[in-house]
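Q: How would the C-alpha cells look for this protein?
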Amino acid sequence: MRLAIFADVHGKLLLPFKLVDLYQQQTGKKIDFILQCGDMGAYPDIHNLDKATLKHARQNRDELGFHDDFIREQPAVRQLLDRLNIDMICVRGNHEDHDFLDKLEQANTALPRFPIDIYHRVFVCRSGVKQELRKEQEVIYLAGIGRIGDAKGRTDKRFIQEYEQREVKRLLKSSGHLDILLTHDKDDSSQRGYGMRAIREVLDHVPVLYHFYGHTGEPFRQEADTNGITQSVKVSELEFGPSGILPEGCMLIIEHQSEGFSALEVVSQRLTNQLTQYNWKD
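A: Here is the predicted structure in C-alpha cell form.
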C-alpha cells in the first residue's frame, strides 16, 4: 500500500490529485490513498470565510477551490477523480468552515471518517478515532486529530473541542498501536508555548510509528520523537513560493508492505516543479 502525504492546501484540493496523477505517470507506482494534514480550506459558502482566508482569496482565487470545484459537479474534475479512483483522507485545520463540517460529522457519528465533497473523494477524520486503511491483505492503523491547541483556554471552533478530547482519552486507553498519527497542529513540547497537548499525550501513551503534521510554517523536517519510537515529520505547506513553485517536502510518499514501512520518499522538486502557480489548473 502506497500513500501520498500533503499539508495545508488552503483551497487547492485538486492539486494533490494532480500531483499524484503526475507521480503515477512518471514513476509507474500506484498510489492507494492520499493523506492531508488539515487547512483544506473547506468553505462551501464564501460568506463564511475567516479573515485570513478572505484576505488571501482577494489576491488568489485558489483559496476558494473547495467552493469552486468540490461543491457542485464539475465534469473535468469528476473525470480526473474517477480515473484516479483515490480517496483523500484529511484532518481539520484551523482554516475551515467548522459549522459545515460539524453538521456532516454529526450525521456520520458511526463512521471514523466522513465525506465532505460532492464526489465522495475527500474525507475528514473524526478526531481521536482509530481507523483502518485496507488494500487486499494489508492494513494500516490510522488516527487523526484535527484543529489546533490553545494554552489560553479558548474554545472557538478553531481549537480542539471537548468531545474530541474525550475521543482522544478513549484512544489512550485502547490497546494496540498506530501506524500513522495525522494531525494539523504539532505537539505542545515546544518552549514557545504553542501546539496541542492531546497530540503529546497520544505520542507518549500509544505506540505510533509515524506522526505527520503541518500548520506551523516550518520547512520539511523528519526527526525521531522524544518517545524514542515515532518518526515525527513536518510536511511543507502546499503553497507556491514567490517564483511560483512548490517547496521541498510538500509531497511525501510512504509504502507499506506486510514486513513494514519503506523509507519515506521526499518527492523530487523535478517532479513537483512541473505544476506551477501558473499552469496547475490547465
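The radius of gyration is 18 Å.

The helical segments are 14-27, 51-59, 65-69, 75-84, 98-106, 162-173, 197-205, 269-272.

Upvote if useful.
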